[in-house]
Amino acid sequence: MPDPSLFTAFNFRVEVTVPDLGPGELCEAAFSECDGLEATMEPKSFQEGGNNAGRVHLAGPVSYSQLTLKRGMSADFGLWRWFAAVMKTDGRRLRGSASVVMLGADQTPKVMFVLRDCLPVKLRAPALNAKDGLLAIEEMQIAYASMDVELPESEA
Predict the structure, then answer these.
(1) pLDDT digits (tens, 9 = 90+) for 58-78
(2) Residue 134 pLDDT
(3) Is 49 part of any domain?
(4) Is 29 part of a structural domain of the chain?
C-alpha cells in the first residue's frame, strides 16, 4: 500500500492537448482547485423470474461530470485561444484531451486522470482589482466524454 504522505490534494498539474491547434501541449497550467473527476454508472435493474428476494443489477451506461478548474495561472493564453477557436467553429474538430496529474512530495507523477474528447464550456476571467494579485483564469469548465485513471506501475 502506498504511503499516504506521498499524495497531497493540492499538488497537481493540468495538461491540455488539442491536436488541431498545434503540436504538443496547448497548455500546462497550475490551478488552485480542480473538481469534477467523477464517473457515475447507472445500473440496469430488473426482477428475475422466480427470485422474489431481490433485484438483479447489471452495469449500465456511464456518465461523467464536468471538470472545473479554479484560480489558475499559465505561461501563455492557450486555454483562451482554445475557447475562442471553439466559439468560432462547430468545435467538433477542436476536441482535446486533458490530464490531471497528481504529484508526490518529490514532484514525480503518482496518479494521472486522463480525460478524452474534451470541450471547453465555460471560461471566466478574474475580477480586476488593483490591490489583489491578478489570476489569468478565475474558472474554467471542461466537458469530457471519458475518463481513465493511470496508476503507478507498482499498482497496475
Answers:
(1) 999 999 999 999 988 877 788
(2) 52
(3) no
(4) yes
Q: Is residue 72 part of a domain?
A: yes
Residues of the chain with pLDDT under 50: 1-2, 4-7
Quick one: pLDDT at residue 104? 82
Residue found under cell 451506461: 61
Assess if residue 53 is contained within a domain: no
Q: Which residues pair with 82 in a beta bridge?
A: none
* pLDDT at residue number 67: 96
Nearest Cα residue to 116 out of 100, 140, 137: 100
Q: What is the CATH number of the domain that holds 78?
A: 2.30.110
Q: How far apart are CA 123 and CA 88, in angstroms?
A: 15
* Number of structural domains the chain divides into: 1
Domain interval for residue 120:
4-37+66-150
